[in-house]
Every structure is written in structure tokens, then in C-alpha cells.
Automatic annotation (TrEMBL):
Catalytic function, reaction form: dCMP + ATP = dCDP + ADP; CMP + ATP = CDP + ADP
Family: Belongs to the cytidylate kinase family. Type 1 subfamily.
Annotated NCBIfam families: cmk
Lineage: Bacteria, Pseudomonadati, Bacteroidota, Sphingobacteriia, Sphingobacteriales
Organism, as annotated: Pelobium manganitolerans
Residues reported in the UniProt entry to bind ATP: 10-18
Domain Cytidylate kinase: 6-219
Alphabetical list of HAMAP family matching this protein: Cytidyl_kinase_type1
UniProt subcellular location: Cytoplasm
GO cellular component terms, semicolon-separated: cytosol
Entry keyword annotation includes Kinase: yes
Protein name: Cytidylate kinase
Chain segments annotated as coiled-coil in the UniProt record: none
Length: 222
């Protein structure tokens, strides 16, 4: 029997990771936050002031980046060369640069390779931008999530506020719009709905309703 892969793609801040974590918990699947990987690479490049116009430097840097997940309690704890960076990768400097760095071909190649390895033999749910199109084109179940942009910004604002971040709703709205623009227009595996992905617009859905909807689609494969 093949392992089950659930791919969740969609725009920034529309609840992908919330749904993915809830699914993983309920179904006892492994949760992989692919965005955290791009964010950790971005943090590494920012810290090292890597010259992004130098492709040899980028390739060399990628060889020095070791990424690991703690998947305990299904939170996206990520280790960058052994250091826990889960909080730092959510902060604004990383959010502002990540989509640029995620558009670099070499970066994507390295991340996709890692992600495919993780989904080889285990039941997993992975969220991101190109999971159903590029990473796992044969995933048994694919979701494409969307939500009203104002609602998305509001949700992310509340989340960051709770963590004590000082940031305005407007800044968040602009960052989300900017990332969506870069993510949908880049050359390398842009964000787009896979033809066989199920659309899930959660503007007016509770977390429980989304979970029930998703489980109903996954059950037949279990
Ligand atoms: O999911 P999250 O919002 O944390 O992702 C941060 C950024 O990483 C996205 O805006 C996108 O530029 C990039 N990303 C990507 N492909 C993925 C996951 C994330 O390009 N599979």
C-alpha cells in the first residue's frame, strides 16, 4: 500500500498551516511546513549577507544549510544548522525577503528535493505554494486554499499581535499582497491551482468546518 500525501497550497496567510496541523493531528500524519524551509534559508542568507546576484555563492551556501524539523506536537519547529529559528523566521525581515529568495531556481531545487524525500514512505500533509503542482504532482488529495485578502491580513495581524510583534495591519496587508504577487508571477513553479486540486475558500468557515470538509475528502484513501 502506498503512503498518503495531502498537498495544501494557496495564498499567504489563508490558514493552510492551521488546517494542515489539525489534519496531521487527527489522522496521525506527519506535518511538513514547506514555507518554514524557504524562510529558514532566507534567514541564513540575510544573516550572512549572501550576494543574491551570485549564483555560485548561492549554490555554495545551500550546501552549508542543514534544515531539520521537530515534528513533536505538530508545530512547525525548525532547526537551521541545529539552531531553533521557528520564531525568528516569522518576523518581518524574513517575511519581506522570502518570496524573492524563493524565486531562485537553485533554492527551489534544493528544497523540492528535501521535501520529496520526506514524503517518500510516510503519510504526510505538506503545505506551501507548489506542493500539488511540483513537489507531489501525484498526491492523492490536493487542496487549494483561498480567503478574502482583508480577512487574511486581519488574521495574521492578530497572530503577530499575540506574539508581541509591533506591526500595523496595513504593513501586513501590503506584505501579503506583495508576496502573493511574487509567488504567482515567478518563473519557477509559480503558485497556481493544480487542475485536480479541491478549492477551499475559508472566508466564512470555522476551523472545524474546514477540518471536517478536508477529512471527508481524505477518508476514501485511508
Ligand atoms: O507559507 P509561508 O507564508 O510561510 O511561506 C513563505 C514564503 O515562502 C511564500 O510567500 C513563498 O514565497 C515561499 N514558498 C514557496 N514555496 C513553498 C512554500 C513557501 O515559494 N512551497
Amino acid at each position: 500500500v502506498n503512503n498518503i500525501v495531502v498537498a495544501i497550497d494557496g495564498y499567504s496567510s489563508c490558514g493552510k498551516s492551521t488546517l494542515a496541523k489539525a489534519l496531521a493531528k487527527k489522522l496521525h500524519f506527519i506535518y511538513v511546513d514547506s514555507g518554514a524551509m524557504y524562510r529558514a534559508v532566507t534567514l541564513y542568507f540575510l544573516r550572512n549577507q549572501t550576494d543574491l546576484s551570485n549564483h555560485d555563492l548561492i549554490i555554495d551556501a545551500l550546501e552549508h544549510i542543514d534544515l531539520n524539523f521537530h515534528s513533536r506536537d505538530y508545530q512547525s519547529h525548525i532547526l537551521l544548522n541545529g539552531e531553533e529559528v521557528s520564531d525568528e523566521i516569522r518576523q518581518m525581515p524574513v517575511s519581506e525577503s522570502v518570496s524573492l529568495i524563493a524565486s531562485i531556481k537553485e533554492v527551489r531545487k534544493a528544497m523540492v528535493r528535501k521535501q520529496q524525500k520526506m514524503g517518500k514512505s510516510k503519510n504526510i500533509v505538506m503545505d506551501g505554494r507548489d506542493i500539488g503542482t511540483t513537489v507531489f504532482p501525484h498526491a492523492q488529495v490536493k487542496f487549494f486554499m483561498t480567503a478574502d485578502p482583508k480577512i487574511r491580513a486581519e488574521r495574521r495581524y492578530q497572530e503577530l499581535l499575540a506574539k508581541g510583534e509591533r506591526i500595523s495591519l496595513e504593513e501586513i496587508f501590503d506584505n501579503l499582497a506583495h508576496r502573493d504577487f511574487l509567488d504567482t508571477t515567478r518563473e519557477e513553479s509559480p503558485l497556481t491551482r493544480a487542475a485536480d486540486a479541491i478549492i477551499l475558500d475559508n472566508t466564512n468557515l470555522t476551523e472545524q468546518e474546514q477540518l471536517d470538509f478536508a477529512i471527508e475528502k481524505i477518508r476514501p484513501f485511508m
